[in-house]
Amino acid sequence: xxxxxxxxxxxLPMAGRPVVNNGVVAITGNAISAVGTAQNxxxxxxxxxxxxxxxxxxxxxxxxHTHIASNLLLRGLLEDVLLFEWLQTMWKLKQNFDxxxxxxxxxxxxxxxxxxxITSFNEHFDAYAVEPQIEALKEIPLRATLGYGFADRGLYAxxxxxxxxxxxxxxxxxxxxxxxxxxxLRIALSPHAVYSCGxxxxxxxxxxxxxxxxxIHTHLSEGMQEVNYCLDNYGLRPVQxxxxxxxxxxxxxxxxxxxxxATDIQLLAETGTKIGHCPVCNAKLGSGTMPLRQVREAxxxxxxATDGPASHNASDMFQEMKFAGLIHKTNTGDVEFLKINxxxxxxxxxxxxxxxxxxxxxxxVGAKADVIVVNLDTxxxxxxxxxxxxxxxxxRADDVRHTIVNGQFIMENxxxxxxxxxxIRAKFHEKAHALKVRSLG
Length: 441
Hints:
This protein is an alpha/beta fold. It contains 17 helices and 17 strands. The protein folds into two domains: 4-60 and 360-416, Urease, subunit C, domain 1 (Roll), CATH 2.30.40; 61-354, TIM Barrel (Alpha-Beta Barrel). Strands 1, 2, 3, 4, 5, 14, 15, 16 and 17 form a nine-stranded mixed sheet that branches. A four-stranded parallel sheet has the order 6-7-8-9. β7 (118-124), α4 and β8 (143-150) form a beta-alpha-beta unit. The chain is globular.
């Protein structure tokens, strides 16, 4: 029995498989049960049929490094500044976060992601509460890995006690949350960065990750200030210092990595460390551009990511794909580098691998049914000679028509189900402006 059949669309299975024109995707329960042509798949017994004529049918986007609630509260607050100046102003608000404000921010962020076709995301909680987003995910159940943020020095020194207590109690948190809600929800350890966490914290995080088999999600080599801090204090670049502590490994997702040298790349490749690549954010904050050609040649898994809405201003993987294609063609001087199929792979299947969620990001029998339907019949996409080209360089987040996660509609015909979007926006607006007033005056 087929629960949902999506027919008549241009199906992009990803994971190296070709486009299927006039294709069919069948969903049974929470998984993909068939992918192919209309002639080869009988959908006559399907409970629900979606006509995807003039649409692309593809895996939902896998956002491998982001900050939703906290960064949404900071969106548009501080523009045209460098990373560390930006972080200092952001911290003034983060110190005043409360759980109700974070709850409404989380809901608003989940609405935005569902509307833009992001079905799974890798959240780094940089020094704020995780529980409000866990609650919000009951209302809009995307596939999420939520990283508990830790630090013990510098700008984040005030969360030192919280960090140590949380790391030492992580076994209980893992038992309570990790791989729950039909595996939609996972949790991770998220030490913030080399300039905000000391050696003892990095070593303990590694021990806890190994003991409880939970992933790690951190920032790494995001800008030259970070590199210089590490050189000044430890005599090594950030990647090399963490490697010397035995920290790196295939369970680590490193956000950014915009400042890597040849040795860094070699170590990341040897340890199997994965990267969440955020080209829009890195360009906006002047953090540099990752040497993607060399990283890919080394065999490192790289997923595209939006970072948070404070530094990107949108949770929009369409923007990220287009900008990634443009910036890397410019930086390499090679217009043939980073082709459209590669950008789509980095946003879907490679993104899933980068966040250690290999069960999603592709349309294949047995994979999780995380699927989006994107309207290509728009003035800004026509004429559609190639659906891949249209998706990377012409379509927009508001072209997403349906978003399905784990076999369930999160958004249908442009409407996010089960929530009052007007109320969410109004409550979020109210809470955000009150936070700004009490933090900055």
